[in-house]
Specification:
Layout lengths: L1 E5 L5 H12 L7 H6 L9 E6 L2 E15 L2 E8 L3 E2 L8 H15 L4 E5 L2 H4 L12 E2 L9 E5 L10 E2 L1 E2 L10 H5 L13
Parallel strand pairs: 4-6, 7-9
Antiparallel strand pairs: 1-2, 2-3, 3-4, 3-5, 3-10, 6-8
Amino acid sequence: MIVIDREAPSDVGRREALLDRAMGQARFLKTSARVRDGRRPAEGLSLVARDGDALVGTVRLWHAAVPSNDGLRPVLLLGPLAVEPSRQGDGIGSRLMEAALARAAALGHAAVILVGDAPYYARFGFSAEPTGDLRLPGPYERHRLLARELVPGALAGTAGLLVPTGAPAEAEPTAEAVFGTAGQVGPRRAAG
Protein backbone atom coordinates (compact mmCIF):
# COMPACT_ATOMS: atom_id res chain seq x y z
CA MET A 1 0.00 0.00 0.00
CA ILE A 2 1.44 3.37 -1.06
CA VAL A 3 1.55 6.08 1.60
CA ILE A 4 2.42 9.70 0.78
CA ASP A 5 4.25 11.30 3.66
CA ARG A 6 6.56 14.19 4.51
CA GLU A 7 10.20 13.49 3.83
CA ALA A 8 12.10 12.68 7.02
CA PRO A 9 15.80 13.43 7.56
CA SER A 10 16.44 9.68 7.46
CA ASP A 11 14.96 9.58 3.92
CA VAL A 12 17.59 11.83 2.32
CA GLY A 13 20.11 9.11 1.43
CA ARG A 14 17.43 6.81 0.03
CA ARG A 15 15.92 9.76 -1.84
CA GLU A 16 19.25 10.55 -3.51
CA ALA A 17 19.72 6.87 -4.45
CA LEU A 18 16.21 6.83 -5.97
CA LEU A 19 16.99 9.99 -7.95
CA ASP A 20 20.20 8.38 -9.21
CA ARG A 21 18.26 5.35 -10.45
CA ALA A 22 15.38 7.36 -11.93
CA MET A 23 17.22 10.37 -13.40
CA GLY A 24 20.95 9.72 -13.30
CA GLN A 25 23.73 12.17 -12.58
CA ALA A 26 22.73 14.47 -15.45
CA ARG A 27 20.04 15.88 -13.16
CA PHE A 28 22.70 17.97 -11.43
CA LEU A 29 23.47 19.81 -14.67
CA LYS A 30 19.94 21.06 -15.37
CA THR A 31 19.11 24.73 -14.98
CA SER A 32 16.33 23.91 -12.51
CA ALA A 33 18.94 22.17 -10.31
CA ARG A 34 21.04 25.32 -10.41
CA VAL A 35 18.06 27.35 -9.15
CA ARG A 36 17.73 24.94 -6.20
CA ASP A 37 21.46 24.84 -5.41
CA GLY A 38 22.32 25.99 -1.93
CA ARG A 39 18.68 26.25 -0.82
CA ARG A 40 16.40 24.25 1.43
CA PRO A 41 13.09 23.00 0.07
CA ALA A 42 9.96 24.86 1.13
CA GLU A 43 8.85 23.86 4.61
CA GLY A 44 6.33 21.01 4.56
CA LEU A 45 6.68 20.52 0.80
CA SER A 46 9.19 17.66 0.57
CA LEU A 47 7.15 14.52 0.08
CA VAL A 48 7.95 10.85 -0.39
CA ALA A 49 5.93 7.82 -1.41
CA ARG A 50 6.47 4.72 0.69
CA ASP A 51 5.48 1.14 0.02
CA GLY A 52 6.10 -0.48 3.38
CA ASP A 53 9.74 0.24 4.18
CA ALA A 54 10.64 1.05 0.57
CA LEU A 55 10.89 4.66 -0.63
CA VAL A 56 9.37 4.54 -4.13
CA GLY A 57 8.82 8.21 -5.02
CA THR A 58 9.84 11.75 -4.16
CA VAL A 59 8.94 15.35 -4.91
CA ARG A 60 10.12 18.66 -3.50
CA LEU A 61 8.98 22.27 -3.94
CA TRP A 62 11.26 25.26 -3.51
CA HIS A 63 10.72 28.97 -2.80
CA ALA A 64 11.36 31.29 -5.73
CA ALA A 65 10.06 34.59 -7.05
CA VAL A 66 9.27 36.17 -10.39
CA PRO A 67 9.25 39.87 -11.28
CA SER A 68 5.88 41.53 -11.68
CA ASN A 69 4.52 45.02 -12.05
CA ASP A 70 4.19 45.15 -8.24
CA GLY A 71 7.64 43.78 -7.31
CA LEU A 72 8.86 40.22 -6.84
CA ARG A 73 6.00 37.77 -6.57
CA PRO A 74 6.55 34.53 -4.62
CA VAL A 75 6.11 31.22 -6.44
CA LEU A 76 7.15 27.62 -5.87
CA LEU A 77 9.49 25.68 -8.16
CA LEU A 78 8.62 21.99 -8.30
CA GLY A 79 11.20 19.30 -8.82
CA PRO A 80 12.45 16.85 -9.14
CA LEU A 81 9.49 14.49 -9.18
CA ALA A 82 10.78 10.92 -9.45
CA VAL A 83 9.45 7.40 -9.09
CA GLU A 84 11.38 4.16 -8.66
CA PRO A 85 11.89 2.95 -12.26
CA SER A 86 10.33 -0.47 -11.60
CA ARG A 87 7.22 1.28 -10.21
CA GLN A 88 6.67 3.85 -12.96
CA GLY A 89 3.17 3.55 -14.38
CA ASP A 90 1.69 2.59 -10.99
CA GLY A 91 0.21 6.08 -10.38
CA ILE A 92 2.77 7.01 -7.71
CA GLY A 93 3.92 10.16 -9.53
CA SER A 94 0.32 11.32 -9.90
CA ARG A 95 -0.35 10.78 -6.20
CA LEU A 96 2.79 12.69 -5.26
CA MET A 97 1.88 15.56 -7.59
CA GLU A 98 -1.69 15.79 -6.29
CA ALA A 99 -0.49 15.73 -2.67
CA ALA A 100 2.19 18.37 -3.34
CA LEU A 101 -0.27 20.72 -5.06
CA ALA A 102 -2.90 20.23 -2.33
CA ARG A 103 -0.35 20.97 0.40
CA ALA A 104 0.99 24.00 -1.45
CA ALA A 105 -2.54 25.40 -1.79
CA ALA A 106 -3.33 24.64 1.86
CA LEU A 107 -0.18 26.52 2.91
CA GLY A 108 -1.34 29.59 0.94
CA HIS A 109 1.00 29.43 -2.06
CA ALA A 110 -0.36 31.02 -5.22
CA ALA A 111 1.56 29.41 -8.12
CA VAL A 112 3.83 26.48 -8.96
CA ILE A 113 6.37 26.51 -11.79
CA LEU A 114 8.29 23.54 -13.18
CA VAL A 115 10.33 22.39 -16.14
CA GLY A 116 8.81 19.24 -17.62
CA ASP A 117 6.83 17.47 -20.30
CA ALA A 118 3.66 19.42 -21.06
CA PRO A 119 1.60 16.33 -22.02
CA TYR A 120 2.30 14.72 -18.63
CA TYR A 121 1.80 17.82 -16.47
CA ALA A 122 -1.25 19.15 -18.35
CA ARG A 123 -3.46 16.69 -16.45
CA PHE A 124 -2.50 18.54 -13.26
CA GLY A 125 -3.40 21.94 -14.73
CA PHE A 126 0.07 23.01 -15.87
CA SER A 127 0.67 24.86 -19.13
CA ALA A 128 3.25 27.09 -20.78
CA GLU A 129 0.76 29.94 -21.18
CA PRO A 130 1.34 31.57 -17.75
CA THR A 131 5.13 31.44 -18.20
CA GLY A 132 5.22 33.17 -21.59
CA ASP A 133 7.18 36.17 -20.28
CA LEU A 134 9.23 34.30 -17.67
CA ARG A 135 12.66 32.78 -18.05
CA LEU A 136 15.18 30.71 -16.11
CA PRO A 137 18.83 31.64 -15.43
CA GLY A 138 20.35 29.14 -17.84
CA PRO A 139 19.53 26.88 -20.77
CA TYR A 140 16.13 25.17 -20.96
CA GLU A 141 13.57 24.33 -23.58
CA ARG A 142 11.04 27.17 -23.63
CA HIS A 143 7.99 24.92 -24.21
CA ARG A 144 8.88 22.94 -21.06
CA LEU A 145 8.62 25.92 -18.66
CA LEU A 146 5.16 25.29 -17.21
CA ALA A 147 3.05 26.76 -14.44
CA ARG A 148 -0.15 26.21 -12.56
CA GLU A 149 -1.86 29.02 -10.72
CA LEU A 150 -3.27 27.84 -7.40
CA VAL A 151 -4.85 31.28 -7.08
CA PRO A 152 -6.39 32.57 -10.33
CA GLY A 153 -4.34 35.42 -11.79
CA ALA A 154 -1.32 34.71 -9.57
CA LEU A 155 1.07 35.04 -12.51
CA ALA A 156 -0.73 37.88 -14.32
CA GLY A 157 1.68 40.72 -15.05
CA THR A 158 4.81 38.66 -14.39
CA ALA A 159 7.82 38.92 -16.68
CA GLY A 160 11.51 38.28 -16.31
CA LEU A 161 13.93 35.99 -14.54
CA LEU A 162 12.83 33.48 -11.90
CA VAL A 163 15.08 33.80 -8.84
CA PRO A 164 15.55 31.48 -5.86
CA THR A 165 14.41 32.89 -2.53
CA GLY A 166 14.45 29.95 -0.11
CA ALA A 167 16.49 29.60 3.02
CA PRO A 168 20.14 28.61 2.57
CA ALA A 169 20.96 24.93 3.00
CA GLU A 170 24.22 24.25 4.73
CA ALA A 171 23.97 20.46 4.68
CA GLU A 172 22.80 19.68 1.15
CA PRO A 173 25.44 19.37 -1.59
CA THR A 174 25.11 21.62 -4.62
CA ALA A 175 25.52 20.55 -8.21
CA GLU A 176 28.76 22.55 -8.33
CA ALA A 177 30.13 20.70 -5.30
CA VAL A 178 29.38 17.35 -6.92
CA PHE A 179 30.25 18.11 -10.55
CA GLY A 180 32.32 21.29 -10.55
CA THR A 181 31.48 24.21 -12.80
CA ALA A 182 32.27 22.41 -16.06
CA GLY A 183 30.51 19.16 -15.21
CA GLN A 184 33.56 17.28 -13.92
CA VAL A 185 33.10 15.15 -10.83
CA GLY A 186 34.71 16.72 -7.80
CA PRO A 187 34.59 19.88 -5.73
CA ARG A 188 34.81 23.27 -7.32
CA ARG A 189 38.36 24.58 -7.25
CA ALA A 190 39.09 28.08 -6.08
CA ALA A 191 40.54 30.48 -8.60
CA GLY A 192 44.02 31.59 -8.00
